[in-house]
Design brief:
408 residues, RtcB-like, RNA repair, RtcB-like_sf, 3'-phosphate/5'-hydroxy nucleic acid ligase, ligase, alpha+beta, tRNA-splicing ligase RtcB, 30% helix
Length: 408
């Protein structure tokens, strides 16, 4: 087997001490069936990113995290990358102009959706009318916006066929963030919209029994946030297709911060994946690298090791350096940064050398802060098959100084 067993945790790739300590803490709390670390793992809030915890009858709002249903949609277009390269600069300008990155909205497009008539909004009504109205208004205002952090809209060239692909990466925005913080508050006996003082990165997971009223409410709210994230990613892909004058003939769409009820070893369990892509046999997923590296479309294998992984794999390359280490600290009053190991010139030179037309992005998202994707894929060679290799030609993200309280 390609994984190690360390204190009961199944670990793919090189163990990160901080993430491993978090995984061990998760394994020691609740009705845990198995705890796992994918090869792209690193520290997260309570449950490590790249971490998977399998529960019997329980769900963890802190495990799913604040960016509920963060994930990717990728589509193959009817164009060749060569068709658009002569006008790539103009097209990337148009993508950056028309699609909303960061916390606000660059246009007045009101994105209506039948999602807002979903009966699961009643979950928030049961918490309170004020909470329901505030969250629904926030969700309506942000549907179809991308956010900041590591969230992106990219254009890719498939390495073997030259076909043009589009992919995006974001989740349920402020709606998901406030849903997560609200249920963490309720679990601690606080008001849904209250502040949450004293929480730390390494605190034990917050657990809810699925059979409890609060657990059922969170599960329904999480699924609603998942449908919201899908609707947002669908909308943004449609925008880019319109800008390109293209059509899609194949699509891949998946969450990687979510909890699923699944059957494993003959019983139903709850699989909480934070920064981990589901990879059941035949299931297709998108895994993104950095802006200076490949991304891939993968398919889960029917193998013993994939079963041991509870049909989970990496969601990206995994960070080697924190945002503060890379970019330094931002003083939001003066809008000046101090410190940081990666310069703007280093980032731009690396991206230019890789042949990428970049819009936005800070040095905390530069290629230097991530592992090479192939390294983490190699650690999961027995669990997934690479179907398509994609090389970025255009990357669009929020600007370096864009403040967004809802980013990853």
């Amino acid at each position: 087997m390609a994984y190690q067993l360390i204190n009961g945790v199944r670990v793919w790739g090189k163990p990160d001490d901080g993430a491993l300590a978090q995984a061990i803490t998760c394994a020691e709390h609740g009705n845990v069936v198995q705890t796992l670390l994918m090869a792209d793992h690193h520290k997260g809030y309570s449950q490590p990113i790249g971490g998977v915890v399998v529960y019997d009858g329980q769900i963890s709002p802190s495990g799913v995290g604040y960016d509920i249903a963060c994930g990717n949609k990728a589509v193959r277009t009817n164009l060749l990358a060569a068709d658009i390269k002569p006008k790539l600069v103009r097209l990337m300008d148009e993508i950056a102009r028309r699609i909303s990155f960061g916390v606000g909205r660059v246009n007045n497009d009101k994105v209506d959706h039948d999602l807002f008539d979903d009966p699961d909004w009643d979950v928030y009504k049961s918490v309170g009318k004020q909470e329901h109205d505030k969250l629904k208004a926030l969700a309506q205002s942000q549907l179809g916006t991308v956010g900041s952090g590591n969230h992106f809209v990219d254009l890719f060239e498939e390495t073997t066929t030259g076909r043009l692909w589009i992919a995006n990466h974001f989740g349920s925005r402020g709606f998901g963030h406030k849903t997560a913080s609200g249920f963490l508050n309720l679990a601690a006996g606080r008001e849904f919209l209250g502040k949450a003082p004293g929480e730390t990165m390494d605190q034990p997971p917050v657990l809810l029994d699925l059979s409890s009223e609060l657990g059922d409410m969170y599960y329904r709210a999480m699924k609603l946030a998942g449908r919201y994230a899908y609707a947002g990613r669908d909308y943004v892909i449609r925008q880019v297709l319109s800008i390109l004058g293209a059509e899609a003939d194949y699509e891949v769409h998946n969450h990687h911060n979510y909890a699923w009820k699944e059957m494993h070893n003959g019983r139903e369990v709850v699989v909480v994946r934070k920064g981990a892509t589901p990879s059941a046999p035949g299931q297709v997923g998108f895994i993104g690298g950095s802006m200076g590296d490949i991304s891939v479309i993968v398919k889960g294998k029917d193998s013993v090791e994939n079963r041991d992984a509870y049909y989970s794999t990496v969601h990206g390359a995994g960070r080697l350096m924190s945002r503060t280490q890379a970019a330094g600290r931002m003083n939001w009053k003066t809008r000046a940064r101090s410190g940081g190991q990666i310069s703007q010139k280093q980032m731009m030179d690396a991206v230019r050398d890789y042949g990428v037309e970049l819009r936005g992005a800070g040095t905390d998202e530069s290629p230097f802060v991530y592992r090479k994707l192939q390294e983490v894929l190699d650690a999961h060679a027995e669990t997934i098959e690479v179907m398509h290799v994609l090389k970025p030609i255009g990357v669009c993200m929020a600007g370096a100084d864009e403040f967004d309280p809802y980013k990853d």
